[in-house]
Amino acid sequence: MKDDECISFLQWVLPQMQMQWAGFRKIRTRVCKRLQRHLHELHLDKITAYQTYLNDHPEEWRKLDEICQVTISRFYRDKLVFACLAETVLPVLCQQAEQQGRRELKIWSAGCASGEEPFTLVLLWAYSLKQAFPQLALHILATDTKNELLKRARIACYPFSSVKNLPIAWRETAFTRVRDEYCLQPGYQHDVIFQIHDIRQMAPDRDFDLILCRNLAFTYYDQALQIRIAQQLCDALRPGGALLLGVHEHLPVTGPGMELWLKRCSIYRKHQKSGSS
Question: Could you tell me which residues come within 8 angstroms of residue 5 by beta carbon, excluding any fewer than 6 positions away?
């Protein structure tokens, strides 16, 4: 399958799945390779034949949706973002929790892949914030659509390429080297619960202090779906809670009751009270 043939197919099919071609430009090579392998499995020689196959087999759309779900993740991805969390966002959310008499900071990592993002938060908490807020505990719900990724997350062993961006002291203290992998020690895994969930569904819980939804809904989905997801994420946050997007993402113009908090890190905050600004 030629590149232009795959591009034409994606430009035809993505809008029918409430996805947008613009978000797939940079990852199209990976998606096209997956499509090529799948066509081989179906014994189809042309992408046009797959279009006909889709029309004749409605259940195939679910498989195509899986093919289009591309995961790119590693520990400490975008250092500036985690600096914003450590220096500004999490301290403010912790102070708010303490003022309200709560003993727990509740976080949702949506699209967590193999656990790199939620475990980075655990390490950030352990080495940068826990001492300043000893009365607070961290509780992280980490979700993804792919069970095989969550299985890897529960094992919590990673190649060096995944952990290389971490501060050396964190990597040496929190991980145990097992052959060619770095395995996160059990004591750093207890605060994270992994669960199957699709961001296009209703939120799995409510009253989160912080939601991370990076390089997912607001990159790959069309505006109508983005607006719906944005409202669901807002509803899942407690007043004053924060929403972190990918550094190149932003909420839809017609988004919910959120205000931009830290532009350089694409962090929004839910209004403290309904109707406030």
Answer: 47
Residue type, 201: Q
Q: Which residues contact 262 (CB under 8 A, 6 or more apart)?
A: 84, 88, 89
Please, what are the averages of pLDDT over each run of 10 residues along the chain (277 residues)? Answer: 94 97 94 97 96 96 95 93 97 97 97 97 97 97 97 98 96 96 97 97 96 96 96 96 96 85 97 59
> What is the pTM (predicted TM-score) of this model?
0.95
Reported as a single tens digit per residue, the pLDDT across 75-97 is 999 999 999 999 999 999 999 99
Q: How would you classify the pairing of strands 267-270 and 258-262?
A: antiparallel
Q: Is the separation of the CB atoms in 143 and 196 below 8 Å?
A: yes
Distance between CA atoms of residues 90 and 113, nearest Å: 22
